[in-house]
Design a protein that fits this description.
heterodimer; A: mainly beta; 7-stranded mixed β-sheet; 4-stranded antiparallel β-sheet; B: mainly beta; 6-stranded mixed β-sheet; 3-stranded antiparallel β-sheet; 1 helix; globular
C-alpha cells in the first residue's frame, strides 16, 4: 500500500533554514507528481508546491516563492522541501501528497515551528 | 491566489443529507473539471473523497457525491453518520500560474 513518511520538522528560529523529506513506498515514485501542503495550527489547508514526476516542472504558492525549493531523488524514492528565510507565518504541519490534479495519498505530516 | 469559498460550518442529524458548497471563479472551478474534496478528522491527515468533480476513489462510501455547476462545486453526504463529523476541504486546479487552490474548509457537525 502507498506510504508517505515526512521527516525533518522541528523548532527553528526566524530567518533560518530547514529541509523536509518525504520517503515514499508502495508505488512507483518516479511515475508521479508530488506536492507539499501545509496547515497552520487551527487553520485550513494551504497548497505549497508541486513537482512533476521527472522534475521537469515545478510550481509554488506566492507565499513561499523565492524562499522554498521543491526537489526529488527518484533513485531514493524521496521528495524534499528546502525552506529558507523562515518566518513565524511558516509555522505549520507540512504534508507531502501524491499525484498531480488530485492528492490521492497523504503522509501524516511533520511539524515545523518557527519561533525565537 | 485567493482561496475557494466554503461555508465555515454545516450541521445535520443522523440519516439526513447535507451539501457543502465551494465557490470559485472562471479561472479555477469554472474552467476545469478538476475539483477534489478531502475529509480530515482531528489530528489526522486529509483523505481524498472525490476527484475530478464527481469520481469516488475505491473504498470511499457511495454516500459521498460531488457535482459542479458553473463556478460552484458541491459535496453531498447522504445518510449522515456520526463518523462523518470532520472538516471538509475542496480543491481546484487553477491553471499553470496558481496551479492548485484550496477552500477554507467546512466543519461538519452531526447533531
Amino acid at each position: 500500500q502507498v506510504q508517505l513518511v515526512e521527516s525533518g520538522g522541528g523548532v527553528v528560529q526566524p530567518g533560518r533554514s530547514l529541509r523536509l523529506s518525504c520517503a515514499a513506498s508502495g508505488f512507483t515514485f518516479s511515475n508521479y507528481a508530488m506536492h507539499w501542503v501545509r496547515q497552520a495550527p487551527g487553520k485550513g489547508l494551504e497548497w505549497v508546491a508541486v513537482l512533476w514526476y521527472d522534475a521537469s516542472n515545478k510550481y509554488y504558492a506566492d507565499s513561499v516563492k523565492g524562499r522554498f525549493t521543491i526537489s526529488r531523488e527518484n533513485s531514493k524514492n524521496t521528495l524534499y522541501l528546502q525552506m529558507n528565510s523562515l518566518s513565524i507565518e511558516d509555522t505549520a504541519m507540512y504534508y507531502c501528497a501524491k499525484d498531480l490534479y488530485q492528492l490521492t495519498d497523504w503522509g501524516q505530516g511533520t511539524l515545523v515551528t518557527v519561533s525565537s | 491566489q485567493s482561496a475557494l469559498t466554503q461555508p465555515a460550518s454545516v450541521s445535520g442529524s443522523p440519516g439526513q443529507s447535507i451539501t457543502i458548497s465551494c465557490t470559485g471563479t472562471s479561472s479555477d472551478v469554472g474552467s476545469y473539471n478538476l475539483v477534489s474534496w478531502y475529509q480530515q478528522h482531528p489530528g489526522t491527515a486529509p483523505k481524498l473523497l472525490i476527484s475530478e468533480g464527481s469520481k469516488r476513489p475505491s473504498g470511499v462510501s457511495n454516500r459521498f457525491s460531488g457535482s459542479k455547476s458553473g463556478n460552484t462545486a458541491s459535496l453531498t453526504i447522504s445518510g449522515l453518520q456520526a463518523e462523518d463529523e470532520a472538516d471538509y476541504y475542496c480543491c481546484s486546479y487553477a491553471g499553470s500560474n496558481t496551479f492548485v487552490v484550496f477552500g477554507g474548509g467546512t466543519r461538519l457537525t452531526v447533531l
